[in-house]
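Table S2 (text version). Query chain:
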Amino acid sequence: MSGEHAAFDETIHAPVRLRISGMLRGAEKVDFAVLRDTLGVSDASLSKHLKTLANAGYITTTKARSASRSDARRLTWVSQTAAGRAAFDAHVAELRRITGDAGDRTGE
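Corresponding structure-token output:
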């Protein structure tokens, strides 16, 4: 952990939000439908969790026209903010600390 303060984050820790944060951690942006389908949740449930993360400043959403669709529907893209990445990384570090896993164990 490079200078971040490990901290248990109740906002991120909820199972669906933890999975969302993990999925977004390595991506520039992820389509709402991909998140929904991968997590196996409803649109309403995903929207609720995204709103919680957005209110915490951990994600942003943008809408864009789909080049592959002929209708006017727009895609919703979800991106993790720098604050969201830092909070997720700190939360994971705290989980490792709590479980005694420094993340560098080999052969155990």
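Notes on Table S2: The chain is about 50% helix and 15% strand. Helices lie at 10-13, 15-25, 32-39, 43-55, 82-99.
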